[in-house]
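User: I've been going back and forth on whether these two constructs are worth ordering. Before I decide, could you fold them both?

Assistant: Sure. I'll take them in the order you sent them. The first construct and its structure tokens:
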Amino acid sequence: MALFYILAGTNHFLNPGFYLKIIPHWLQGHRWINYFSGLCEIIFGFLLLFSFSRKTAAWLIIVLLLAVFPANIQMMLDYWNSGNEFLWVTLIRLPVQGLLIWWAWVYTKN
């Protein structure tokens, strides 16, 4: 799981355009939000590597996943409104967020 979040966070810096498009339109500072969430993923991923910080990191990941969930909804709505052929991917992504939360929750246990 640590590698997953470190790589995902790094991708915010390598491919910011993808993330900038899905940040809800009503939020300000899209570029800052993108880089901050990517940095959080990287830091939390590294914190998962150590037993003394693993539980805290898992809870922080859960909070982060809940915080970015509106971006997944925004992406689904944008795809729906534009008739994007990949709408199905965004519909699958919504429950996958729940699986990612569960996966992190597993790491909150001793």
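The second construct, handled the same way:
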Amino acid sequence: MIGLIMAGGKGTRMQSNQEKLLLEYKKPLISHVIDALKNSNCFKKIIAVTSPNSPQTRKMLIENNVTIIETPGENFVTDLNYVLKKLDDYVFVTSGDLPLLDGNIVKQIVDTTNPKKTWTSIITTKSFQSSLNLEPECIISFNEEDHVHTGISIVNANKIKNFDSVEEDYLIINDKRICLNVNTKTDYKLLSTF
């Protein structure tokens, strides 16, 4: 299995000159994600996806011996599809802005996901996110309840021929380690309360 960190976003909602994934929470946000993937011992390879939007993040990753795939940087979905076409393995996809992620929850997700599914997205209930004072933006309805994407998916890249026809499966895990995507200044401030 490959660990894939999405690290090419602009971070425009942060309204900061500093690249979002380099903001500090004891260490750069993305470093928490790298360490979580390494500490899970689930991956033969860890790759970070960068773009022209994240030159300083790319530089830091290269200095830390993380393999890089550069994308055009259009948006998350387009960049992810671009990379998945180049891979032929199971891929654990995570956003680079999940600083509470750790090796134990990564391993739990890998162990719990059904390997027969082509695409499994990890979601939480909106009510759980609200209990943590989080205000998610992208709400999906599943089993007649509101849920939130965490930015984590497990994908069998071998089975994907056309992204339009991929059936998405959902795994609900209500755990604060996968809830807090740092997208805004409010999210970043909230991080210190966890």
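Notes on the second construct follow. The CA atoms of residues 53 and 168 lie 28 Å apart. The chain has six helices and ten strands.
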